[in-house]
Structure formats: structure tokens, C-alpha cells
Amino acid sequence: MDFESNAESPQSSNTWNVVGILPGHDPAQRKNVILLTAHLDHLGIGTPVNGDNIYNGADDDASGTAAVLELARVLGSGPKPRRTVIFALFGSEETGGLGSTYFREHPPVPLHDIVANLEFEMIGRADPKIAEDALWLSGWERSNLGPQLAVHGAKLVEDPHLEQGFFRRSDNYVLAKKGVVAQTVSSFGLHKDYHQPSDDLAHIDFQHMTNAIASLITPVEWLVNSNFIPKWNAGGKP
């Protein structure tokens, strides 16, 4: 008997995570790890729009990647923090959080030692729903992390787009489901260039992005040198 099939052969591809570790100096606090993350990938080549088929991802998420790299530079060039800091740039977020899932299943430290994760996602433009120099934190009401960072100078506010479900739409959620207090810092204002070839450098507000990253340096320095252990609020843990 002859059979014909139109099924395509399975295809495989590789993805990469980039991870750096800054060991803490305090024996009493170095095991309380702070994880700072963003995702490296975007959509690559896709359906042409006005003749352009390169989906650059300047805001989503080169802007967040820049934030992690700058925080790594600042923390790495100053006094050694009390706590260990892990900087991770995940691959394949856009295809289902594969990079962050691999990190979760193969963490460089025990997962229960990660006391907080801040994911930086789309901070390249101001969100018109909040102050121009502010950022919002997904799942603000779920934990005490955001309010404590704000007390220590972070220009963070509640997510004004709750209907979008952003808390569940970034790499932070992969870790939050395992108990890590993990939330996303963003200023995405639902701009029309999301997942389009037009998400390119021409549309990045560099002054906003620079101010946004700079505004987080002091609060993050506090976090990596404090005794504060973030906690989920009642009903906040996913």
C-alpha cells in the first residue's frame, strides 16, 4: 500500500541564555539572591509590512536588555554588594518563555535562594497613562516588593493596564509560578509598533530610557545590600 503525507519534518533550533553572577560579600546575606533579567530575543524575520520584514524589537526587549547590562556595569564597578546578584538575559521569550523555563529548571543557585526577580521589559518609551519619568510594575498588588522599592526612591507605580494581564505575559511569571517574588518593570503604553517591524531605534525615546534606568540604580543598590525579603501578599502568589 502506498501512503502520502503532507506532514512536515520536525525542526529544531538553538537558543541561548546569557548569565552573569556577582557574588555577595556578606556571609549572612549572600545566599539571598537578587535576579535581574530581560529577554534577548524578538520575532526575527516575519510577514512584510510596507516592504519591511525585519522585526527588530528595539523596545521589546532591547531596551530591557540595556537596563540589565547597565545595572550590571554599575553594580560590578562599585563596592561589592552584600547579596549575590544574578544578571540573566533569556532567549526565546517570544516562543513561550523557553529560555526562562530552562533557567528555572537548571538554576545556577537553588531556586528558593532567589528572593526577588525584576524583569525589565519594554522601557524604551514613556507610557502616557503614568508620569513621563515613571515606570510601572506588573502585579504591584501581589507583593510588597514594589512599594518598598518606591520608598527607597524608585519611580514605580501600579500597572495601569490590568486588563492586559502583563504579570502573566513575561519571563517573570515562569519563576513566580515556582514561588519566586518575580515581577516586571515596564513603561509599555500599548503603542502600535508592538510586534511590528516598526519597533526600531527611530521610535525609541532615549531620554526616557536613560532616565528610567538611572532612576532604578539607587533602589536596586538598596535591594542588593539590604536585609529585606520580599513577600507575596495574601492571595498574590500565582
Report on the structure:
This protein has 5 helices and 9 strands. 25% of the residues lie in helices and 19% in strands. By secondary structure, it is α/β, with parallel strands linked by helices. The chain has helices at 58-77, 98-105, 145-151, 172-176, 206-225; strands spanning 18-22, 33-39, 44-49, 52-55, 85-90, 114-120, 135-137, 156-158, 182-186. It starts with 17 loop residues before the first strand and ends in a 13-residue tail after the last helix. The strands form 2 sheets. Strands 1-5-2-6-9-7-8 form a 7-stranded mixed β-sheet, with helices on both faces. It has a two-stranded antiparallel sheet with strand order 3-4. The model has no long low-confidence stretch (mean pLDDT 92).
How do you describe this structure in short?
This protein is an alpha/beta fold. Helix content is 25%, strand content 19%.
N-to-C SSE series?
EEEEHEHEEHEHEH
Distance between the termini: 53 Å
Mean pLDDT figure: 92
| SS element count, helices | 5
Instruction: Give the CATH superfamily.
Output: Zn peptidases
Oligomer kind: single chain
Corresponding CATH architecture = 3-Layer(aba) Sandwich
- What is the CATH fold-level name? Aminopeptidase
How large, in whole angstroms, is the Cα Rg?
Answer: 19 Å
Which percent range describes the beta-strand content? Answer: 15-25%
Number of domains: 1
Structural class: alpha/beta
The total strand number stands at 9
CATH secondary-structure class: Alpha Beta
